[in-house]
Amino acid sequence: MNLPRFVVRVALAALFLVPAAVVTHAQDQDKQQNQQSDQKAQQKNPFAPEPAPPLPPGMTGSDTNDPRYKLKPGMWDAGETEMGMKHIDFVKKSDALQLNASSPDDPKVQKTLGQMGIPDVTKIPKSFQIVIAQLAFGNSDLAFEGNHLFQGNFYGMSIFDISNPAKVSLTTTMICPGGQGDVSVYKNLMFMSVEMPNGRLDCGIEGFPTEPPSTDDKDKDKGPMDRKPAAQKERFRGVRIFDISNIANPKQVAAVQTCRGSHTHTLVLDPNDKDNVYIYVSGTSFVRQPEELAGCSDEAPNKDPNTALFRIDVIKVPVNAPQDAKIVSNPRVFMDPRTGAINGLSNGGSLHKDQEKPEDTNQCHDITAYSAIGLAAGACSGNGLILDIKDPVHPKRVDAVNDPNYSYWHSATFNNDGTKVLFTDEWGGGLGARCRPNDPNKWGADAIFDLKDDKLSLQSYYKMPAAQGDTENCVAHNGSLVPVPGRDIEVQAWYQGGISVVDFTDTAHPQEIAYYDRGPIDPNMLVLGGFWAGYWYNGHIYGTEIARGLDVFDLTPTKNLTKDEIDAAKTVWVDYLNVQNQQKIEWPNQMVVARAYLDQLERDSALPASRLADLRKAAKSIDKEHPNAKNVAKVKEMSASIQQDASSAKSPQDAERLRALAAIFSNPAPTPAKHKA
Question: Are residues 469 and 423 in the same domain?
Answer without folding.
Answer: yes
